[in-house]
Amino acid sequence: MITWTESSIVQYVTWSLILWDYLITLDDEITLFWFSRRSWIKFLFFANRYMGLVLRIRDIVEEHLNNTDDPMGFYNPCRRVMPEDAYNACAVSTESDSVLYVTPHLFVMESILILRVWAIMGKRRRILWTFFGLLACTTAVSIVLNLSFLMDTLNMLTPSLRYVLPTLIFEAIIFTAAAYHGFKVSGGMKSLLLQSKGPFQHGPKPIMRLIFQVSTVDCFSVLCSLPLMALVDPRLGLTIMSVTMTHMLLRLRKEGLSNSDSVGSSSQEVELTTFRANTNGEMSLESGRNVINIGPFPQGS
């Protein structure tokens, strides 16, 4: 008889979420990324997507093998390691929620966010290196907080706080910088959130507006996932962040391709609208095949 515990429920929710997301987005992944040119975004997309997927499949296999109650401990080699230090080292290399796996996954997702914010802020190299330097410091702090002697000193009740606290500070800085730049350049929230469909429009370009919108949603998703990492299960929080990041990149790539297919459509609409005047003072406005007569105007006007 299967006994349902809080931990097992969280595990099944995590597995179901990432496998379901992979199946419904596989078609878009093939269309938008498999045959595209090589880039850092393409590399980070696959790293984020398959790092989480492989680790969750590994968890499923490990859970199934552990339920076999192997008396020799063949499927869990750490059981045969008696010294405490050796056991901790073994757990770091085998547990999917250890620093060896969580920190690189967080680094990949935060790198994607940095590249999006960098695009929002004008692709200035100084900003890019500043953000990556901040990310390197955040990652280093997360690794240091995983040292057992420091954890004992801080007496943290929830071990997952070693990931949450540095990531929370990093996300707050990145989101504040992106929001400030967006409001300053675009002219406010209305210009960033509302989309204009007309040929004449002011404010940021549609693709930049979309980048800001999805980056904002992604930041909020990360901030909402951090409590799950701290209080429930780090793997569930990582899965939610990874799924959100995947959908963000797919949407941006799809929007970019649709814009490239329809490039010049707005300028063509403007070019098709022409003015003509004849010697009688009559004027006509032509838009495509439609002609609107204006005038004639009275003499001396």
The gist of it:
By secondary structure, the chain is mainly alpha-helical.
**In the residues, how many domains can be counted?**
2
**What does the average pLDDT come to?**
70
End-to-end C-alpha gap: 94 Å
DSSP E strands, number: 3
Helix and strand content put the structural class at mainly alpha
**Biggest β-sheet, characterized?**
3 strands, antiparallel
Uncertain residue segments: 153-157, 195-204, 263-279, 283-292
Radius of gyration: 27 Å
User: What level of helicity do the residues show?
Assistant: 55-70%
Q: List SSEs in N-to-C order.
A: HHHHHHHHHHHEEE
Q: Report the principal-axis shape.
A: globular
Strands across the major sheet, in which order?
A: 1-2-3
InterPro entries: DUF6533
Keywords: Membrane, Transmembrane, Transmembrane helix
Organism: Armillaria ostoyae
Protein name: DUF6533 domain-containing protein
